[in-house]
User: Fold these one by one.
Assistant:
Number 1:
Amino acid sequence: MNLIFVDAENVGLNTIQEIDTRITDKVFVFSNNEQIKILCHDLMFIMMDGYPIGKNQADFYLIAHLSKAISQVRYDEKKKLTFILYSNDNSLCQAFEFQCQHASISCEIIHTKPIQGQNTNNQEYTTAELNNIACLYKALKSKSMLVTELFNTTKLAQNEATKALNALVKKDLIARSSSNKKVWEVVAELKPELFA
């Protein structure tokens, strides 16, 4: 028996129509979309909606329901079950896989589009964002400083500055100072190929 979880906000309507199920399978579709709700009714899939609108809200809701489902599985049922996730969201896939492995339940992740390789990170940032990253790095290179001071020095909008700061942290170019955790400092050389 399969318990199928569908991140419909991520994979869309067509994927739901293509899911091949048996009568014993349970399909949980996570979306607040009305069209998807109608489709789920026609296919006898369980619609999971009503969660807040916002970034990752469907993901949080899905993992909460996965945990609830896992908690209801008896020990003798574990070998008979497979939990399946339809999603292209790598973070959600990792969380789903972890929960299943932790409970010793087999799982399968189905991506509906090719997984992007690491070399596609170069399309992650626009020219404006790359300029913001360089601006923040240059400011920190001249002097270690608090995040508020850094944002004031660069005169970037808070959301732009935060994104640039996160990009520098992700590439291990800056870190919090060991002497004062509120202060950021440069820890590696900014090379163009890191963002090329």
Note: Residues 32 and 49 are 5 Å apart (CA to CA).
Number 2:
Amino acid sequence: MKNTFLIIASIVVFASCEREAEWPDDQGILPEIVVEAMLTNEVKQHEVILSFPMSSANETPVMISDADVRVSDGNTVFHFSEDTLNRGHYYSDSAFAGTPGQTYRLLLRSVQGQMWYGYDYMPPAEIFTPLSIALTNTHDSLYKISYVCQNYDPSKFAMYEISLDWSAVPGYDSSINKAKLYYYTLGTLDMGEILQTDFESVTFPKGTLIKERRYSISPLYAAWLREILIETQWNNGIVVSQPGNATSNMVNELDTNHRALGFFSACSVVEWNGTAQ
């Protein structure tokens, strides 16, 4: 049965939590590059991460160094330089903000001589109603998130990033005291395909600092996330495999048969901050 629904995918971050992935596609063929890049409307040095795919979840990713990385809006070209202390991580040479309503192009030239490009449209930023919380344990004053996206519109795709921090609450300074959760509104999904997902239930004490960020995302990026959420196997929010047919928007300029993983997205962001009380 097809339903319009708010899809929830939680990634709980404690001391250090890594996402692991097995990259071979259905034919066992590794794509050639993994791209992680998100441009936002925030004034900052934006980041592009490049690596080679892993054939096993136990492998350490091999980063791609010495690439030529650029982002363009059709009029201005923003150049990126590699962090010499963190190989494979490229940052814009100067801080800038993406402009909602613009289409952006990411262009990569690797040391192997391959050229890749991808486009994404940055939707307008949307003011939103902050999340709701509910008291679940009156004795210990523990809360949980009861609702996100109260002004839900299925025609507007969004990702909600919620950061919880109760490290400053007395009695929690040396225990598990932080979490990060992601909620997605992606339109119509077949709920039968994702109910098997094992979502983490997070409770937090009074005084927890809450940061909620709403990312307005393009239909193209929403479609990619939809593929990942439906077809990726999840275990407590940690990615353990990526489907071979999750379609990246990165294309090889010389040979379209060469495949890439990951996505270049352009998102406008609105942020809200509050405290559990």
Note: Residues 159 and 184 are 5 Å apart (CA to CA).
Number 3:
Amino acid sequence: MKMVKYSVGIPIYEGEDNMKILDKEIKQVMNQLSGTYKIIYVNDGSSDNSLKELKKLSKVKIIDINKNYGQATDNKSKKMQEIYI
């Protein structure tokens, strides 16, 4: 297993309409870098279908926070040990 070099952490709030486009664009950029990467989406208490749409994406980690306390940024950075983008 290759060691992950980069982590991309993205807080999501009410973003169901843009998930596929966002994920595609991020992966295109990351594929241009040398090294492996992981993408972490943090659903920050969205009341729309953001979590449902996130679960449709492949090769991503999802953290779900039930209420929007602005904790998404803190939470994702605690999960990363690589270079944070």
Note: The helical segments are 19-30, 50-55, 72-78.
Number 4:
Amino acid sequence: MAPSRKANSDVSPPNLITQEAQSQTSQDLDTSAMQGLLEKHKKSVKAHTIRGKLEVAVQRDEEQFRARRLPQVERLCELEQKKRQLEEAIISSKTELDTVIETAVKHLQMGIEKWKEVTEG
């Protein structure tokens, strides 16, 4: 049979060192986790700030568009409408001019026929 082991009271129990190491490791992990959460929070705040700035910039751009471009677009529409009105006026004037020319040609033809009758007759 093997001799029985006798407990030596001079040696400190290994569990105490292990517990201290585990406690320190646990604290290190907690600190690391807190730092990670803090970094994540900082990034989240930064992203939120950037998003807010972008939204403000987009809104400002839309307001500037309305202030500068919208009047230009409205003016362009007005000019396009005036162009159509002028085209219609030109077509109407052309029609009236065609009628006047036709009437003048008929009068000239009648005058020529009367002149021929007088000179031949």
Note: The two ends are 171 Å apart (CA to CA).
